[in-house]
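Backbone-to-sequence.
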C-alpha cells in the first residue's frame, strides 16, 4: 500500500503491479496526476487504473485517465467485479485458482 502519490509512482514503475486503486485526494499530488504520469510512460500498458471517488461525474476531463471509476461508497461486490474484470497478465486458469487474481496496489490517504 502507498499512502502518497510519489510512493505509488515509484512502486508502479517497477512493473510488479497490474491494478492500482487510487484516491484523487492524496497528501502530496492528485491521484489524476499519478494516472497522467503513468499514461505517459511505457509501463502504463501493464497497469489497470481504478479511481475511487466520491463523485465520478464531477471528474470531467480526467475521467479518460482511468480504466474504471468506483463511486464511494462502493460494495464488496462492486470491488470484486472490478478485480475480476481487470485484464491481468495472469493465465485465466491461474486467476480462478489463486487470490488475488492480479497484483495490485492501493494508493490512499493515510
Amino acid at each position: 500500500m502507498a499512502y502518497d502519490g510519489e510512493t505509488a509512482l515509484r512502486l508502479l514503475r517497477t512493473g510488479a503491479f497490474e491494478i492500482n486503486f487510487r484516491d484523487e485526494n492524496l497528501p502530496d499530488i492528485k491521484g489524476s496526476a499519478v494516472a497522467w504520469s503513468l499514461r505517459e510512460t511505457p509501463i502504463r500498458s501493464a497497469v489497470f487504473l481504478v479511481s475511487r471517488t466520491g463523485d465520478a461525474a464531477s471528474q470531467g476531463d480526467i475521467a479518460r485517465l482511468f480504466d474504471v471509476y468506483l463511486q464511494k461508497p462502493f460494495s464488496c461486490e462492486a470491488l470484486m467485479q472490478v478485480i475480476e474484470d481487470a485484464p491481468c497478465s495472469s493465465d485465466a486458469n491461474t486467476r480462478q485458482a489463486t487470490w488475488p487474481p492480479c497484483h495490485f496496489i492501493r494508493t490512499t490517504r493515510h
